[in-house]
Design goal:
- The protein is mostly helical and about 160 residues long.
- It has one domain.
- The chain has a two-stranded antiparallel sheet.
- Helix 1 packs parallel to helix 3, helix 2 runs antiparallel to helix 3 and helix 3 runs antiparallel to helix 4.
- The radius of gyration is 19 Å and the shape is flat.
- The protein starts with 5 loop residues before the first helix and ends in a 6-residue tail after the last helix.
Length: about 160
């Protein structure tokens, strides 16, 4: 089997960046839980960071999962030999998904509405940062759904074809 193409390798790189964002959010989670940063054992530099520990946990886990999702699709494209215009579409769809969801988690951390609505909701009042987090999440939730319809179509159409050697 041929090696991965540059587009697939770039997807793995972008997925890695999204995972790194999730790992950084893990530090935020730790600091929100202990109320600061432990300089050395038993001595914590106390400070508050925006967002609660639940929001930090979502940003941490979500960043890790979204990065892996981008990488997984790159590996699927390689294994299924998806090329040409379909590969180009999946590339921007999945890379965009990773970054859009990262923006969403940041917006959820910094807004009272958790970046879930354009107006006020049960969690609090609307803000610009909440809206900035919501817009890419809404757009790319549709884009991601379409991407997986494309992947399913490719999987079922290639399953009907004999294996290429």
């Amino acid at each position: 089997m041929a090696s991965m193409n540059s587009q697939q390798r770039k997807m793995i790189g972008h997925g890695s960046v999204v995972i790194l964002l999730g790992l950084v959010a893990g530090f935020g989670l730790t600091m929100s839980l202990i109320g600061g940063f432990e300089i050395f054992p038993g001595h914590i530099l106390e400070f508050n960071i925006p967002g609660n520990h639940s929001a930090w946990a979502r940003a941490h886990a979500g960043g890790l999962m979204n990065g892996m999702l981008v990488m997984l699709v790159a590996l699927l494209m390689y294994a299924m030999r998806i090329e040409g215009p379909t590969a180009n579409r999946l590339y921007w769809m999945m890379v965009g998904t990773g970054y859009a969801n990262s923006i969403f988690y940041l917006g959820g951390l910094l807004s009272q509405t958790r970046a879930l609505t354009f107006g006020d909701n049960q969690f609090g009042e609307t803000s610009l940062i909440g809206m900035i987090g919501l817009v890419p999440a809404l757009v790319f939730s549709v884009v991601t759904t379409i991407a997986f319809i494309i992947i399913a179509r490719e999987a079922f159409s290639s399953a009907a074809q004999p294996t290429r050697k």
